[in-house]
Design brief:
about 850 residues, seven-stranded antiparallel beta sheet
Amino acid sequence: MARERQSAVGVAVMTLTVLVAVCVRGGEAPPDLTRGDAVDRKLTYNLGATGLRGWIYTKAASFFDSCQGRTTTASRQILVTHVGKGSPADGVVKVDDVILGAGGKLFTDDARQSIALAIQEAEKEANGGTLKLTVWRAGKTQEVQLKLRVMGTYSDTAPYDCPKSKRILAEACRALEKEPLEPNIWGAINGLALMASGNPDYLPRVRELAHKLAPPDLKLKGRGFGSWETGYRGIFLCEYYLLTGDKDVLPAIEKYTVALARGQSMYGTFGHGFADLTPGSIFYGSIPPYGPVNAAGLPANIAIALGRKCGVKDPAVPPAIERACGFFGYFTDKGAIPYGEHEPWPYHENNGKNSMTAVLFSILGDRMKDSQFFARMATAAYKNREYGHTGQGFSYLWGALGANVGGPAALAAFFKEASWHFDLVRRCDGSFTYDGGEQYGAGKTDDDTYYGKSGYYGLSPNACYVLTYSLPLRKLYITGKGARPEEWLTRTEVAEAIASGRFDLDRKRKTAQELVAAFRDWSPIVRGWAAEELATRPEAKDLVPQLIALAKGRDPHVSQGACEALGLLKSEEALPTLVSLLSRDDRWVRFKAAQAIRRMGAAAKPALPDILRAVARTAEPLKPINWADPVQLAQGQLAAALFRGPLADALKDADPKLLYPAIRAIASNADGMARATLRNMFENRLTLEDVQALAPDLLAALKTPSPADTMFANEIRMGAFKALTKYHFKEGIEAGVLFARTQGGHGSESRTGVIMKEIVKYGSAAREAIPALRELIAEFNAQVKRNEFPGGELNRRRVSAVEDAIKAIQAATTHPELRSIAPTQPKERAGK
């Protein structure tokens, strides 16, 4: 009987290997670990409370799948890389064993999720902690049995009213209390978690940390510790004061809050550091290049909101809150909060930023539409937890907190979908691990062992999950203190959010008309997915008249979905309708119509004159900021359609009376990315006649960076600079030095050399700039001393480029004929 069973399992293993090879998309099958296929063991996964770490095949079929959590979908085997001493697996499972199944069955789906679900089953009272694994060892397949601790079953309302959740919380707290409370961002988060646990025994340590972060003689260096540190320190101190009433920290809370309020940009955003001062040392300028980072800016804004709740009345605070509401509120009903001052991220979550936004609006208390929308997005984002730029740490920190803004039912629904992962990263001693990497993937511990230390930079995984499991206690404002039940999502809304989260797969089974009906979904992500799927259907072209009628309708959701579908279908018949929608009052309908035109590419050529007119007609001043479209993203879509796609070639035949006003409109758009679309045209497509007509605008674009999205602000500046230098406009010399001085640090080690080469082309005519170039060298070195730019090789490259330019100019013997920008703009040339 034993031999028959072993033979049957062996046949099943061979069959499974063939099935895996067939099912994997993209032409690559996972390695077969039972045949000795070599793998890189550097990155592994924790395997729950088993005591095991293991290598699992991790390769998403596409970028889309990686964002939707399908990273180990093709895996059917797990290679054991470490067995924790004294753990349930110790003495039962060995390193190099290959786990092929659990519960008496081979894995027929994602091996990682399958073993997590098997662990959950084993930990139930009814199963007594027994976990059966099918293991391949040294050429033989066998069944082994692990004895896990019985943790119980998650209740339907978990983590609310759930004994298992309480047990996990208690053990995670015991793990967290062993960690240090350093006076920095990570210590502040650990302190928040200890306070959230509700255990009064932790308060003496928390008080000690609070007083370290808030000494009586607190002096914020420069304008603070940077956005990351100042934001999280501020959140911790505010929550500490609101929990304990310790007035000793109030002076520091005011300093942190005011520093953040004054360091915020004109758009309500933050970068890694604070915003630039505007001329006259006025606060609230732009975020200097590298540009805004909303993962840092949202906690900073939460700290400002909590500071106001603590009683900070500085006049800088109310307008800072208004700016934050204006910018982040813009994304309500449009998509996920992006990386910086960009268009919405097209998924339900973006590394915890939607969840942070839900918490922000919940704390503010008078933005119910916004808090509910982002709570729904957070609830629907259970598949997006494992995707994130630089890793998933902030997703794990904030995700459940965002769903909790929607109320207990929303959190319970989110928790149910994500609990397999919670139990996968929980170890047998009750502590938690962090597994993750850039974008997505496995992780590691510091010593590659089961019990080794792990974390997202310095972020404690124990702190993340203490905050998650302590949500029912509502001890802090970020964990639901002061929650208003009237703002919670209804059970219907919760069910809709969960359904929206899996629509990316469900849409494949929908009829064309069901996809059209999905344009009415609350989720902008679902509306986009429905349009994408509809455009792949053969019958979609017959639906164009219906889609045009829907696009013209007054329901903005339906209009948005119809626009997306028409753009993907590249329907020339829809062009007049799409162009007409560029003036619609609803700015997001404008955006989607413009996006549709961009997606149509060359098919939009018949509407080119109307598109150019629309660009000029929709131009807006930079101030006052219009919060209906603060970064002018709708016009940015038209900019991309015109200047960064197939339509760009058609512009050579465009009437200058239409083309020049459109160029001027985009060149003065708030968004650096929109302006950047002009770089290629400026650098490579403008004739001398064009440059003469546009020279004042080129000079203005070169001298004045975009106020928003400064990450891309230097693109148009470089294009305008090269357009002026190409035809030797003398104003290009001085403007080039100014460009080098004001380009910002990010990328300047390479960009400076490009700028200098253009100035050198002026030959001896550039000698008048030599004193300014020497001053530029001094400024570069001063930036290093002020810690604004790294020293060493990077700065040496900048300085050397300027020094070489000075030498070349001094040795120059040529003096090209210079042109000058006319004091009045020349008459535009006649159309071709």
